[in-house]
């Protein structure tokens, strides 16, 4: 299904001595290829044909919420009054942008139950880092010296990494039955605790039922509760982080709000807070001024800036279009996502796959493929074999608390037929000869890639080749 | 969906949400009704009508500037196989993106003269923050020296990145030539950050002096570069920079300030301390060339709290725009655009001097420069605005009545002449 030709590197396509012997320019050599537009287009089209995007097929990558990216979003950003607008223009000439930012903040407040938002963080992890710096500022302001942030062992790697970057010591607590272990949490909480970071539903796709108790315990310890919004797609209109008792939230617009992932980015990771933390949000804040809007930098307790300007504006605008398009039917998005996930989980169980911590799930679930190990087949092999059947594999080896984890998130956009055909492929694979599975993929532009060699012998530019 | 519920043995969707405690159920969202596609477009177009684009209101604002982007760039990044894909964890299904990102790393390496580059930080400011942390990890030291004159937004971001590791940021003043003084001394210096061209647009050609910083202080040299400037002037490797950062605006429009692309390159000896994703060339099972993400043990999904950075999603698609732009222009085209920028900027500066603006620094510049205005910069801009145009960025905090101008190939002679005439009129 994907073109299996090989494409030369750009520097192999054209002459690249880049000699410019003129005497008046300091740099005489700029070794970049000189190609025609025709050659360049052909090159990139060939490359694109060796890449799997959402429009190619099912992409059930757990935790990443690979929903269909509406083409509408691509059109609205191609406006000259976005593309050709400088971030430092006079406020009176960017009222459209400011209006959109302000309205988007308000709608995110409604969806998450927060009181104020900053759209400046450029991704989820950047939002976490922002939240942790605000946590720091909050306790400094109160004259409290708190040095620890607690995260569950099921947390995404960015959670501990962001806490650490903000200068906190990370305390990891074990899970119990796939959920927060209350005893472990109580044990870990102390007057040293600055925050507890949690996703809910968690990375197993399980809703933390004890969230009320968790929130109370965290509050009693004087700490803040941080919501990693990576899984917000499960609960829109059903509950909200604010109602659950969270103080700080980040949302991933490239997950829940349908903006494309771009092969790794750019996304956007707005951060929302309850009222008691609003004064610490990054500057500038977008504020109403008379009939219009203004950028307010006069916030003495703000943590300052997190990125060059106001965040990834073109991504924010796409998310704005997404929310307008869905409106109050966002709730149905979550419903569909949850139905699809539960249906797919039950179907996969029915063909023999194992779901540790089995119970009803929200928008995603995690299989363990550990039982295939006796055949010498690992989660990685099944993932690679799925490629041969035209599917993008689920997330593998995350969360860390499930052996041979296979994390499936179908999203709301897939039909029952698609889910069924995925189950058929999974069913076929378990029964296949293990050598075929271990040798997969067989029908991709390249065979199994040797990632170990890439580490041992680091070839990182075309000069190294 | 009914049939799926039947399969699950439930009657209503609500049963799937029963784990949410009753007290916490919100029962819907107070958002407007869903809109048709056409309505969304109309709404957004109407809102954006309140903006003025560069073509409606030309400006000379610096830092991020308008550049011409060949239409082929748009077509390339509009390929759904690129823009809708996730981070290329599954190498066999992502060879296109991986190869393109490998090419991006190669192009950044060629432009900067450095040995390795990652596939992006969020922007130049966060790249600087990450560079400071990396220098701290390598040297075990705590002081970061920065020019007093730098874009204040970038400075603020750097402070936030430095906070957790308790790095001390120390400002170094500039001399009369507008360049950061290099006669500092002291111990515990992790890194010196210089910009070239610097905040005032001045090209720093003190190559010998810059080369010797490391030997003299044991600190790393972080160079903030402009990729277009590198088409004409020596790359930072020439003066032995250890880490290179910059704004990768080539091929990426202004978009009201984002998304941007933080360039990050380094010497190979520091590879294991680098933040962010890195693509490597390897082979597949049959020994044929293939590409994959590599050195992932530096990253948060493996190393968690001990990772070199928390970054996960980055600005990958902006790398593709950058690469496509450079590929389309080639070495000749890139130099052409760079020369045009420099020429236009010098033309504008000369015209302004003719009409009474002064240049506080007698120094070589690329496509940005400082003038002192006959009146406060803010006031000048206000008057220009009334005439449908805008000047540069007022920088009174560094130069009294100072204004930083940015000029590119988009500023035609006619536009510059008209702007100068208008300035004369509004000053009078
Ligand atoms: C649970 C969870 N938290 C945080 C993140 C980090 O988000 P981002 O990639 O936007 O930085 C992710 C992304 O994959 C995630 O799945």
Description:
The complex is a heterodimer of chains A (465) and B (428). Chain A is an alpha/beta fold and 465 residues long. Chain A has three domains: 10-49, no CATH class; 73-328, Aspartate Aminotransferase, domain 2 (3-Layer(aba) Sandwich), CATH 3.40.640; 331-464, Aspartate Aminotransferase, domain 1 (Alpha-Beta Complex). Chain A contains 16 helices and 14 strands. Chain A has helices spanning 10-13, 37-48, 71-76, 80-83, 95-112, 124-141, 158-165, 182-188, 211-220, 241-244, 313-326, 330-350, 379-388, 416-431, 434-438, 451-456, and strands at residues 116-118, 148-152, 169-173, 175-176, 179-180, 193-198, 224-229, 248-251, 271-273, 285-289, 292-296, 365-368, 395-396, 405-408. In chain A, the strands form four sheets. Chain A has a seven-stranded mixed beta sheet with strand order 1-9-8-7-6-2-3, sandwiched between helices. A three-stranded antiparallel beta sheet of chain A has the order 12-14-13, covered by helices on one side. In chain A, strands 4-5 form a two-stranded antiparallel ribbon. Chain A is globular. The mean pLDDT of chain A is 96. With 428 residues, chain B is α/β, with parallel strands linked by helices. Chain B has two domains: 71-325, 3-Layer(aba) Sandwich (Aspartate Aminotransferase, domain 2), CATH 3.40.640.10; 330-427, Aspartate Aminotransferase, domain 1 (Alpha-Beta Complex). Helix content of chain B is 36%, strand content 14%. Chain B has helices spanning 2-8, 37-48, 71-77, 80-83, 95-112, 124-139, 152-163, 207-211, 213-217, 300-303, 316-354, 377-386, 413-427, and strands spanning 116-117, 143-147, 168-172, 189-196, 220-225, 243-247, 262-266, 278-283, 289-294, 368-372, 393-394, 402-406. In chain B, the strands form three sheets. Chain B has a seven-stranded mixed beta sheet with strand order 1-7-6-5-4-2-3, sandwiched between helices. A three-stranded antiparallel beta sheet of chain B has the order 10-12-11, with helices on one face. A two-stranded antiparallel ribbon of chain B has the order 8-9. Chains A and B meet through helix 2, helix 3, helix 4, helix 5 and helix 6 of A and helix 1, helix 2, helix 3, helix 4 and helix 5 of B. The structure holds pyridoxal-5'-phosphate (PLP).
């Amino acid at each position: 299904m994907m073109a299996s030709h090989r494409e030369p590197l750009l520097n192999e396509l054209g002459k690249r001595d880049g000699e410019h012997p003129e005497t008046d320019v300091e740099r005489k050599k700029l070794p970049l290829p000189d190609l025609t537009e025709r050659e360049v287009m052909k090159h990139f089209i060939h490359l694109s044909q060796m890449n799997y995007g959402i429009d190619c097929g099912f992409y059930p990558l757990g935790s990443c919420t690979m929903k269909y990216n509406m083409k509408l979003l691509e059109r609205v950003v191609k406006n000259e009054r976005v593309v050709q607008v400088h971030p430092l223009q006079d406020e009176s000439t960017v009222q459209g942008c400011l209006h959109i930012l302000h309205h988007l903040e308000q709608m995110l407040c409604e969806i998450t139950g927060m009181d104020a938002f900053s759209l400046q963080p450029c991704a989820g992890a950047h939002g976490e880092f922002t939240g942790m710096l605000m946590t720091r500022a909050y306790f400094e302001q109160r004259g409290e010296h708190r040095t620890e942030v607690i995260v569950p062992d099921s947390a995404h790697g960015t959670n501990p990494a962001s806490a650490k970057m903000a200068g906190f010591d990370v305390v990891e607590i074990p899970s119990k039955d796939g959920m927060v272990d209350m005893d472990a949490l109580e044990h870990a909480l102390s007057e040293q605790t600055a925050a507890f970071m949690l996703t809910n539903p968690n990375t197993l796709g399980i809703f933390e039922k004890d969230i009320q108790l968790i929130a109370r315990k965290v509050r009693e310890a004087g700490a803040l509760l941080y919501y990693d919004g990576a899984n917000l797609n499960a609960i829109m209109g059903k509950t909200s982080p604010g109602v659950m008792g969270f103080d700080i939230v980040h949302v991933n617009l490239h997950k829940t709000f349908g903006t494309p992932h771009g092969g790794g980015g750019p996304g956007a990771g707005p951060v929302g807070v309850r009222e008691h933390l609003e004064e610490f949000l990054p500057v500038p804040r977008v504020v109403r001024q008379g009939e219009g809007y203004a950028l307010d930098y006069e916030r003495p307790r703000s943590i300052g800036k997190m990125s060059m300007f106001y965040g990834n504006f073109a991504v924010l605008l796409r998310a704005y279009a997404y929310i307008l398009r869905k409106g109050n039917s966002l709730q149905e998005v979550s419903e569909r996502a949850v139905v699809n996930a539960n249906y797919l989980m039950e179907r996969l169980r029915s063909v023999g796959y194992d779901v540790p911590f089995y119970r009803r799930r929200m928008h995603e679930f995690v299989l363990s493929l550990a039982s295939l190990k006796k055949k010498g087949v690992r989660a990685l092999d099944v993932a690679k074999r799925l490629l041969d059947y035209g599917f993008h594999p689920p997330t593998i080896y995350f969360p860390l608390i499930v052996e041979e984890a296979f994390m499936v998130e179908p999203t709301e956009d897939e039909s029952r037929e698609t889910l069924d055909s995925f189950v058929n492929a999974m069913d076929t694979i378990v029964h296949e000869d293990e050598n075929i599975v271990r040798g997969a993929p067989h029908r991709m532009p390249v065979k199994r890639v040797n990632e170990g060699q890439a580490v041992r012998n680091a070839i990182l530019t075309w000069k190294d080749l | 969906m009914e049939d799926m519920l039947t399969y699950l043995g439930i009657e209503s969707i609500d049963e799937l949400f029963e784990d949410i405690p009753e007290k916490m159920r919100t029962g819907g969202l107070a958002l407007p009704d869903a809109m048709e596609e056409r309505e969304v477009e109309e709404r957004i177009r109407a809102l954006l009508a309140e903006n003025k684009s560069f073509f409606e209101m030309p400006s000379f604002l610096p830092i991020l500037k308008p550049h011409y982007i060949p239409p082929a760039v748009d077509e390339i990044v509009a390929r759904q196989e690129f823009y809708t894909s996730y981070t290329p964890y599954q190498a066999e299904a992502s060879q296109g993106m991986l190869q393109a990102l490998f090419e991006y790393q190669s192009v950044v390496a060629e432009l900067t003269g450095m040995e390795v580059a990652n596939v992006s930080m969020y922007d130049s400011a966060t790249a600087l923050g990450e560079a400071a942390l990396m220098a701290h990890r390598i040297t075990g030291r705590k002081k970061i020296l920065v020019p007093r004159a730098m874009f204040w937004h970038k400075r603020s971001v750097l402070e936030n990145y430095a906070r957790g590791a308790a790095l001390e940021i120390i400002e170094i003043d500039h001399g009369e030539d507008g360049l950061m003084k290099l006669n500092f001394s002291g111990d515990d210096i992790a890194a010196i950050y210089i910009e070239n061209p610097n905040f005032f647009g001045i090209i720093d050609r003190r190559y010998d002096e810059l080369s010797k910083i490391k030997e003299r202080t044991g600190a790393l040299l972080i160079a903030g570069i402009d990729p277009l400037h590198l088409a004409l002037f020596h790359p930072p490797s020439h003066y032995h920079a250890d880490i290179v950062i910059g704004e990768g605006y080539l091929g990426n429009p202004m978009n009201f300030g984002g998304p941007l692309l933080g360039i990050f390159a380094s010497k190979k000896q520091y590879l294991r301390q680098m933040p962010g994703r890195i693509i490597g060339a390897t082979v597949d099972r049959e020994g044929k060339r293939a590409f994959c993400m590599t050195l992932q043990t530096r990253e948060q999904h493996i190393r968690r709290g001990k990772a070199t950075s928390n970054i996960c999603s980055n600005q990958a698609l902006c790398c593709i725009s950058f690469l496509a732009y450079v590929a389309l222009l080639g070495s000749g085209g890139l130099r052409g655009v760079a020369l045009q920028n420099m020429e236009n900027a010098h033309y504008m500066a000369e015209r302004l001097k003719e009409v009474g603006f002064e240049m506080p620094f007698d120094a070589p510049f690329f496509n940005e420069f400082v003038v002192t205005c006959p009146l406060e910069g803010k006031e000048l801009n206000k008057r220009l605005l009334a005439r449908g145009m805008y000047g540069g960025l007022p920088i009174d905090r560094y130069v009294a009545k100072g204004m930083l101008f940015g000029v590119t190939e988009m500023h035609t002679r006619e536009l510059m002449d008209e702007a100068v005439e208008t300035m004369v009129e509004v000053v009078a």
